Amino acid sequence: MTTVAAYAAPAAKAPLERTTIERREVGEHDVLIDIRFAGICHSDIHQAREGWGDAIFPMVPGHEIAGVVSEVGPGVTAFRVGDRVGVGCMVDSCRECENCRAGREQYCTGGGMVGTYNALGKDGEPTYGGYSQKIVVDENYVVRIPDGLPLDVAAPLLCAGITTYSPLKRWGAGPGKKVAVLGMGGLGHMGVKIAHALGAEVTVLSQSLRKKDDGLKLGADHYRATSDPKTFEELRGSFDLILSTVSAPLDFDAYLSLLRTEGTLANVGAPEEPVSLNLFSVLGGGKTLAGSMIGGIAETQEMLDFCAEHGIGAEIELIDAAGINEAYERVLNSDVRYRFVIDTATI
Ligand SMILES: [Zn+2]
Ligand SMILES: [Zn+2]
């Protein structure tokens, strides 16, 4: 076991504080990673506050991890000491079910994926995430960060990047397609950059025009306020794909009306309460209301390679670990442009 400095929530809703955790010995197929940067994802806050149900405490959140390999097990073939690597939302899965075999480990049906934190590993021990200085992960759940991508702006790609890349690819964002990105936060700003790089015509749909300049700078072609009823009249039947990154309850009927025939409204955010809609909103026009959750390991590598090729990183605000609790408050107030990233050397 190795003792590692970390920031943890000792109990639900308690402020995070500095502590130490134990990391397992580097096993046959394990990689020891010196974490350099860890992004703060909104789901870290949900889980540290038990907004999504019972959680495991103490909790070390963090599933947007970028670092450098400092040791490898004897059976490791994909990585060497010194490699720049990332770890996202999962650190294991059954590896045998249909989904794992197809590279959709996030939808593992053989017991489910093992979350990077707030989960139990196959050894029965709780997993601890990226708000720490080192992590030990099986090489099959580690991805390579291409040289062209600085580690700090790469970290948020491990969740926010893949969460938006996967549905944009799956539903065909590309040249000749009109894509709307709903919400201009941590996920949304990545959705804009990636959809633009894929060649789509991109519209941001945001509550107000407050972040319009940013949206256009990041690659959006249009930016419309959803608080303005004219937006819904004028954009009716416009989009091939709407990517919703918001977790507030939505008027699904109104957003579905913005789709073209056989268009898709894909959700990557989820409100805590069940939603309602009039099914005629999907029957008319043969529309699809869909969902997507992060992406598989191979697709995460593909996303990182794509982002490096297109010079895409997250827009970040780098903070010291002592600022984590304040950052949480600011995320809850949508007061970040667009992702906090912890410099883990300050833990
Ligand atoms: Zn996340
Ligand atoms: Zn599986």
TrEMBL record:
<keyword id="KW-0862">Zinc</keyword>
<keyword id="KW-0479">Metal-binding</keyword>
<keyword id="KW-0560">Oxidoreductase</keyword>
<dbReference type="Pfam" id="PF00107">
    <property type="entry name" value="ADH_zinc_N"/>
</dbReference>
<dbReference type="InterPro" id="IPR036291">
    <property type="entry name" value="NAD(P)-bd_dom_sf"/>
</dbReference>
<feature type="domain" description="Enoyl reductase (ER)">
    <location>
        <begin position="14"/>
        <end position="342"/>
    </location>
</feature>
<dbReference type="GO" id="GO:0008270">
    <property type="term" value="F:zinc ion binding"/>
</dbReference>
<comment type="similarity">
    <text>Belongs to the zinc-containing alcohol dehydrogenase family.</text>
</comment>
<dbReference type="Pfam" id="PF08240">
    <property type="entry name" value="ADH_N"/>
</dbReference>
<dbReference type="InterPro" id="IPR013154">
    <property type="entry name" value="ADH-like_N"/>
</dbReference>
<dbReference type="InterPro" id="IPR013149">
    <property type="entry name" value="ADH-like_C"/>
</dbReference>
<dbReference type="InterPro" id="IPR020843">
    <property type="entry name" value="ER"/>
</dbReference>
<dbReference type="InterPro" id="IPR011032">
    <property type="entry name" value="GroES-like_sf"/>
</dbReference>
<dbReference type="GO" id="GO:0008106">
    <property type="term" value="F:alcohol dehydrogenase (NADP+) activity"/>
</dbReference>
<dbReference type="InterPro" id="IPR047109">
    <property type="entry name" value="CAD-like"/>
</dbReference>
<protein>
    <recommendedName>
        <fullName>alcohol dehydrogenase (NADP(+))</fullName>
        <ecNumber>1.1.1.2</ecNumber>
    </recommendedName>
</protein>
<dbReference type="InterPro" id="IPR002328">
    <property type="entry name" value="ADH_Zn_CS"/>
</dbReference>
